[in-house]
Amino acid sequence: MNEENKNPYAGRWVAKLKGRIVAQGGTPQQALLASQATRHKEKPEIIFMPIHFSLPPLIQKIKDVLPAGQEMYLVGGAVRDLFLSRLSSDFDFALPAGGIALARKIANTLKADFVPLDDERDTGRVIVHENETRIFLDFATYRGKDPSTSSGQSLEEDLRARDFTINAIAYNLQDDTLIDPTEGVKDIESKIIRACSPTSFIDDPVRVLRGVRLAAAFDFTIEKATRESMKQASPLLRSVSIERIRDEIFKILNSKRVSDSIKALDMLNVFEHLMPELLKMKGVEQSLPHVFEVWMHTLSVLDYLERILFNLFEETPKNEFAEALQSQLGKFREQIHKHFSDSLNIDRTHRALLFFAALYHDVCKPDTKTTDENGRIRFFNHDVKGAEVVAERARSFNLSNDEVERLSVIIQNHMRIHSFTSKLENENEYPTRRAIYRFFRDAGKAGIDLILLALADMRGTRDKEMTLEVWNIYLEISKILLENYFEKPQETVSPPRLIDGNELMKELNIKPSRVIGELLEAIRENQAEGNIHTREEAINFAKEELSRKENEHGKDSS
């Protein structure tokens, strides 16, 4: 809160008697009742103590175009964000009646898009496009009912029916006052997440997930009674639409402190009802160099992935590992940023998808665990089986086909970079051009995700036992792969096609068969390796390769 709001009564309604403040509250009624509790015969003056906001220009525009006498409040998270000096892209407005009609009028004035969201609740949406982003303005009639009012609706009851007190504050666009019946401003100042009512999570169980997300996003603490209510309500999540569950999970994965949020969801027994396959990872031991069992390793990977992304884009590295990361990969900062900005779905971020993959990357280790005669623990094919499990969960969440495919590719290939680094560390052998081609042939754009996940995976494997020497080996492999992908794509990643299947059949005088595809792929691999440069060389190579295949087939037949 800025200096102008340091007055202890700023943003509060106060009761004044003879120029002296005798009571206060979050609403005029609360201030009056508090005054009457000790001075029931006296009639105080109820006034609002001003609070100073830096209103976003868009909200100021809406204030300017409101019809005269129009009662309307900015409510919910947007008001909370004003207190926290955060930018918001979603604005909710509450008014006594005519939500859809006013939304249409505002959309016309702003030359924005209009969508009637809910006829029954009289809710309309305005979508404003600014700098390649979408800003949503929702206009709804009060949800709370109050028979004492002429409309039968009440702003205060609307606010009390909301999820958390920090989201139950209303800002009056007409006179710049606040209505705060649940003391949300105090909770913002105290950094506390508190439910608006004892039935908050029964009324809408998805609030269990939202509470965890808000606590992580703002570095707030969930009040003990609220935490207990969340845990008791977690079984009710089964009754919530999978789309709402998915959206909250992905918002958590796109927020800060992802690892802490996952721990919190686990403590609240959420995964038991939504993603039980994750719980099998708990307590599954691993051999060195792993320092954690599988579940703790997964949490550590999430933590390191967040740190790596932060350090990659942070200007001043905080330690030698961050310094090495920037030194080796810093030149790819813009390309990696663009990679994350190219989302596979407009409603979900690419970053959240990568964290979802990180959460599931070892999900099948419990099912594939073996121990050899030397006591070494192995997890053969956990990557392949894990790809199947994550695809099944992704489809149950109604993710797009592109997202399901990306998750599958990431998890199925997440061990390959470890193989590259192992050869460099133990045999001083760098990946060949052919190996680099095959990696990106199988991974495609997910190759960038795989590099970042591998870095986090290794940090999460060794944790404090990680040496700068091993870290630099991983960074060197990452740099080689990124250089090929971003700087030399036509050489090793995607060589230009020198000949197509029809032309090859004509040159070789053969009929369509699987061999054509095999020959074309072999040509491209040799292009990537630098052995083939021209169409003529491709044809000669194909003739020799076909002859070799025919000879081998002849030997097999005999």
Would you mind describing this structure in some detail?
With 558 residues, this protein is α+β, with helices and mostly antiparallel strands. The chain has 4 domains: 3-48, no CATH class; 57-190, Beta Polymerase, domain 2 (2-Layer Sandwich); 301-493, no CATH class; 501-557, no CATH class. The chain is built from 27 helices and 16 strands. Strands 6-7-8-5-4-11-12 form a 7-stranded mixed beta sheet. A 3-stranded antiparallel beta sheet has the order 2-1-3. β11 (170-172) and β12 form a beta hairpin. The longest helix has 23 residues, at 535-557. Residues 147-152 have low confidence and may be disordered.
Overview in brief:
The chain is built from 27 helices and 16 strands. By secondary structure, the protein is of the alpha+beta class. The N and C termini lie far apart (86 Å).
First CA to last CA: what distance? Answer: 86 Å
Largest sheet: 7 strands, mixed
> What is the count of structural domains?
4
Supply Rg: 30 Å
Low-confidence stretches: 147-152
Give the helix level as a range of percent.
40-55%
| β-strand number | 16
Percentage beta strand: 5-15%
Give the tags.
558 residues; alpha+beta; Beta Polymerase, domain 2; 4 domains; 3-stranded antiparallel beta sheet; 27 helices; elongated
Topology:
Layout: E1 13-17, E2 20-25, H1 28-36, E3 45-48, H2 57-65, E4 73-75, H3 77-83, E5 90-95, H4 99-110, E6 113-118, E7 123-130, E8 133-141, E9 144-145, E10 153-154, H5 155-160, E11 170-172, E12 178-179, H6 184-190, E13 192-193, H7 200-203, H8 207-218, E14 221-222, H9 224-233, H10 242-253, H11 258-267, H12 270-274, H13 294-313, H14 320-329, H15 333-341, H16 350-360, H17 365-368, E15 369-371, E16 377-379, H18 382-396, H19 401-412, H20 416-427, H21 433-443, H22 446-462, H23 468-487, H24 489-493, H25 501-508, H26 514-529, H27 535-557
Parallel strand pairs: 5-8, 13-14
Antiparallel strand pairs: 1-2, 1-3, 4-5, 4-11, 6-7, 7-8, 9-10, 11-12, 15-16
Helix pairs in contact: 8-10, 8-11, 10-16, 11-13, 13-14, 13-16, 13-22, 14-23, 16-19, 18-19, 19-22, 20-23, 21-26, 22-23, 26-27
